[in-house]
Specification:
The chain is mostly helical and 297 residues long. The protein is built from 14 helices and two strands.
Length: 297
């Protein structure tokens, strides 16, 4: 069969370009230009308040400095720890809860709305709430521990051994809702014919979940992993409110370290280099997940 070629008039082409132009302008002005400017400024050594002064060109020294920066290594390790633990816990909890919601009666749908409340709450508000919960003297956590197992006052956010775990718990509490939302949407898209066929074949509930539900929502799982990984890699709000990276560098993340380098130490050139490293890491993560998603297709 011969494919008929569609002729587009010059007026229609101009109209198409007119519709595309705002998007191109947005990408260029708010994304590409700042990235190019960051690359350029990362080649200089300059302070935040030296905007009118001549900047010292240092080439790649800011990037070379990263490899010998012990605080950067600590920040990367803390960030990776948060990413791994939060992903594993949130995915497991999110899958179990979304599977439970998928099986409940319609009269119980109100539970789905309540579960989403933590996700729609501002990270700053969440951080303030959990600072009170973790308070050594008046916090709910220590109150329960004192009245159950007799444990004394624990400085959850002031102890290097418990601070990072405490941050992970807060993120799990807030963002498991997002995982539930995505996975539940995937489960509701499974055709009823598949479920009926599995019942006819005499499969058990766990076999249905393993061989039918999980493969059917694999794209949703990859999507939620990609979005949560990128979000966790740039975690800032919660850490800033809870610990500000302390005690010491126990909860110092890459975003927190970049912020401090910019607005506490005023080393803008080095901060630009740190932000570009973070950008490259996030791009590599997103590309890896996109390739995995294409492989699933």
């Amino acid at each position: 069969m011969k494919i008929r070629r569609i002729n587009i008039s010059s007026e229609e082409k101009r109209l198409g370009y007119a519709f595309i132009l705002p998007g191109v302008f947005f990408l260029g002005f708010f994304i590409f230009i700042p990235i190019i400017y960051s690359i350029y400024m990362s080649l200089f050594e300059w302070k935040l308040f030296d905007l009118g002064k001549i900047k010292t060109f240092v080439g790649l020294d800011n990037f070379i400095r990263i490899f010998s920066d012990k605080v950067f290594v600590t920040a990367i390790l803390n960030t990776l720890t948060i990413v791994v633990f939060c992903l594993v816990i949130e995915l497991i909890l999110g899958f179990i809860i979304s599977l439970s919601l998928w099986n409940i009666k319609r009269s119980m749908k109100v539970a789905q709305s309540l579960i989403l409340l933590p996700m729609i709450t501002s990270p700053v508000i969440v951080g303030l709430i959990w600072r009170f919960i973790y308070d050594p003297q008046f916090g709910i956590v220590n109150y329960v521990l004192r009245n159950t197992i007799g444990v004394g006052n624990i400085a959850w956010l002031g102890n290097a051994d418990t601070a990072l775990i405490s941050v992970i718990i807060v993120d799990v509490w807030q963002m498991t809702s997002f995982v539930i939302l995505i996975l539940y949407a995937g489960m509701t898209s499974i055709p009823n014919e598949y479920l009926e066929a599995s019942l006819v074949d005499g499969t058990t509930y766990f076999q249905t979940v393993r061989y039918m539900v999980i493969p059917s929502i694999s794209h949703y799982i990859i999507l939620v992993l990609m979005m949560r990984t990128m979000d966790l890699f740039k975690i800032f709000d919660t850490v800033y409110v809870l610990t500000r990276g302390g005690p010491g560098y126990a909860t110092e993340t890459l975003s927190m370290y970049t912020y401090k380098t910019s607005f506490q130490f005023y080393e803008m050139g080095y901060a630009m280099a740190l932000s570009l490293v973070s950008l490259v890491c996030i791009l590599m993560i997103s590309i890896s997940y996109m390739k995995l998603m294409k492989r699933k297709d």
